[in-house]
Amino acid sequence: MKFKHKTLIFFAGLVWLGMGIFLLSMGLHFILETIHTPSLTQIVGRFSITNSLRHFISDPTQCVIVTITIALLLGFIKGKMALAKSVRRQVKRIESLPNPASVKYLYSKGYYLLIAFMMLLGMLMRFFPITIDTRGAIDIVIGSALINGAMLYFRTLTQFDNLKKTGAI
Hints:
169 residues, two-stranded antiparallel sheet, mainly alpha, elongated, 5 helices
């Protein structure tokens, strides 16, 4: 199956959006689970973000809110700084493909390896010495960054349309 550049860019953004929503919702579920079962953050030998925050904030619910807020903020920054460069590179690479191009060229081989490595790292996180709230915070950071990156893909499509309207393309 072959698609135009604009469609491939949309697919790339859709993949990032889907994974971002998945990770964000999973991270929120993990963190919110600690409100109902506080013992999940009290495992000896494992790092807990909410327990670390309890030195400054006494209410466990407020610790969870602060954790989620910080994770969302870090994800936003990561999306704006690091993933914006990746989006620009991917869009440039897609635009260099013949038009229309096969969907199998959506990402480069190296990018597919990076995705596989990130998935493996996500699966291995359950073996890291962290509690479920910390894992949830990491998922929120990555998920919100991916959602931010997806919005950059979609914004590129809008710019693509504007360039076409003005005759620049």
